[in-house]
Write a structure and sequence with these properties.
eight-stranded parallel beta sheet; globular; HMGL; TIM Barrel; binds magnesium ion; binds 3-hydroxy-3-methylglutaryl-coenzyme A
């Protein structure tokens, strides 16, 4: 039997958060409802961040209230602090994610605090989540390069990843935020991180600015990672990482994983439909 690899669909969150056109809530719900039929176990659908910082994600509660929840799918949301966690809990998110950075410059630009301050806030979130029995995922951004500070040392990534892991994150997603890392740099980073956090608790989150995300996924497979974040239609970018393109396209990742002999459990026909919807949502600048 083929070995399993999982794609964590992040299009409705990481994909849409950067779209300049205000996307109607109903369109987001329709995309998520289609994705729910594709066979994902986890879909990131909302961010409970400041609506002044990321207006596109202001309707997270309405999105979570409007979707058709399919059994076996966990609907996830980003929560930068306790306020975000409480909003996510009220909206019945099945799991939440805290999101830190391996570089100080991105931490300040993205969540307006130092790495150390962010870890204190995240500790509060993980404690509240434990109390409420909500699983928490952790992101580390800028695992190879930062738009503000330049190259990031692998040891800095490992240091933040292990702190998130120790505070109770069930999985740490390693964000190659700028999407232009070389496979060699990704390997050096994974060498350091897998020495601290088991590979089966790590996920790869590759943006695809330079078109090397699939190569980098193969590198990560070699280190034992089996979970990869991707966005249907290659949607996205981060508002606080200027110039970064979207996440690697879910369909391309599914095809590559299948070609390498991994079973993703995804229905390609449904994914194609969701991909077409995502392209339409992208509108004029896509
Ligand atoms: P701040 O201004 O430092 O926060 O922002 P604050 O605690 O001083 O509060 C200021 C105001 O924001 C207050 O309102 C708070 O109530 C409100 P006021 O009293 O002025 O009316 N506020 C909130 N409102 C709603 N929900 C909340 C919340 N928290 C405070 N949770 C904050 C700090 C983190 C909130 C802000 O910097 C923020 O929202 N940043 C958004 C970051 C973001 O969403 N970035 C994109 C996602 S990360 C990403 O894409 C990378 C990833 O994909 C991995 C990768 O690719 O690398 C994950
Ligand atoms: Mg991202």
């Amino acid at each position: 039997m083929a070995e399993r690899a999982e794609i964590f669909e992040v299009g409705p969150r990481d994909g849409l958060q950067n779209e300049p056109r205000p996307i109607p809530t109903a369109e987001k719900i329709a995309l998520i409802d289609t994705l729910s039929e594709a066979g994902f176990r986890r879909i990131e659908v909302a961010s409970f961040v400041s609506p002044r910082w990321v207006p596109q994600m202001a309707d997270g509660a309405e999105v979570l209230a409007g979707i058709r929840r399919v059994a076996g799918v966990r609907y996830a949301a980003l929560t930068p602090n306790l306020k975000g966690f409480q909003r996510a809990l009220a909206a019945r998110a099945d799991e939440v994610a805290i999101f830190g950075s391996a570089s100080e410059g991105f931490s300040r630009a993205n969540i307006n605090c130092s790495i150390e301050e962010s870890l204190t806030r995240f500790q509060e979130v993980t404690e509240a989540a434990r109390e409420a029995s909500v699983p928490v995922r952790g992101y580390v951004s800028c695992v190879v390069e930062c738009p503000y500070d330049g190259p990031v040392a692998p040891a800095d990534v490992a240091r933040v990843a292990v702190r998130l892991f120790e505070m109770g994150c069930y999985e740490i997603s390693l964000g190659e935020t700028l999407g232009r890392a070389s496979p060699e740099a990704v390997a050096a980073m994974l060498e350091a991180v897998t020495a601290e956090v088991p590979a089966d608790r790590l996920a790869g989150h590759f943006h695809d600015t330079a078109g090397r995300a699939l190569e980098n996924i193969e590198v990560a497979l070699g280190f034992g990672l089996r979970v990869f974040d991707a966005a249907v239609g290659g949607l996205g970018g981060c508002p606080y990482a200027p110039g970064a393109a979207g996440n690697v396209d879910t369909i391309r990742v599914a095809r590559r994983l299948a070609g390498l002999g991994f079973e993703t459990g995804l229905d390609m026909e449904v994914l194609e439909r969701a991909g077409a919807m995502a392209h339409r949502m992208r509108g004029a600048h896509g």
